[in-house]
Amino acid sequence: MRVRVKYKKGDTVRFLSHLDVARNMRMALKRAKWPVAITRGYSPKMRVSFYSPLPVGTSGEEEYLDVTLDKNGITDFIQAKAKGAGHLLSNSDILAQLAGALSNALPKGFAVCELVVVHNGQKPFESQIQGSLYRTEIEEVTADTLSSSIEAFLAEEQVLFEVQRPKESRTMDLRDFVESISLIPGSSPATLFMTIRHDNGRTVRPQWVIDSLSRFGMDINTGEVIVDRLKLYFG
User: Fold this and answer.
1) Which H or E run contains 202?
2) In Å, how far from its chain's centre is CA 185?
3) How far is CA 218 from the centre of its chain?
4) Given this model, what pLDDT does residue 66 score?
């Protein structure tokens, strides 16, 4: 049995790395006594999959992870919960019990939004993600001063950006991934909404887009930019 968890990574934990988020989630699953299946081999691990990881400093309203449950373990879990409830549990009851246990085990800043059962035969979840909607607030900049730089960015057919990695660097075409940018008129700090495309797990960060505006007359310290991912789009 595979369960998909939609959860929130809130403002107070926005500076956790993806590895920190994964560690906290696995610890919470253990505290919640979820019967998570374990991989085989020399280094057994929980069968948990995370999707479209957020960069450090970004919160997420709708994040996802898949958890594979052990067949015998989930049977024992259901029987124990059914005995406590005094009646047979439906699938919705089981999911509610799992959600409640996980909610109580999560650290402050995380919240469970929804649980659904993942049925066999579905195409890989990462390939279903078509885009992300971000809200970005830029301190000490107004929408009026930012608008011309955004217009110049959107007018370009190609905006190349060099992504620095610990062992290598690569060049991305930001314009190929940015579908739209809309500014809230008169907002201060400047607030904008950005829709960014995903391509089988490949995407770009809003921070890279803001950083690239330096070539369009707007030099912004991305360390002072507040980024929230509001939604993932699926196809």
Assistant:
1) none
2) 28
3) 28
4) 96
Its pTM stands at: 0.90
Taking the chain (235 residues) in consecutive chunks of 10 residues, what is each chunk's mean pLDDT?
Answer: 95 96 97 93 91 95 95 78 62 88 96 93 89 94 91 97 87 97 92 96 94 92 92 94
Q: Check if the beta carbon of residue 30 is closer than 8 Å to that of residue 48.
A: no
From residue 114, give the alpha-carbon distance in Å to each of 23, 99, 111.
20, 8, 9
Residue 29: in which H helix or E strand, if any? helix 18-31
CATH topology agreement for domains 2-122 and 129-234? yes
- Domain 129-234 sits in CATH at 3.30.70
Amino acid occupying residue 107: P
The class level of CATH for 2-122 reads alpha beta
Q: Rounded distance, CA 206 to CA 134, Å?
A: 8
* Residue listed under structure tokens 């659904």: 116
* Short-list 142, 131, 125, CA closest to 196: 131
Lookup: tokens for 48: 């948990």
Q: At residue 198, what are phi and psi to the nearest 5 degrees?
A: -115, 145
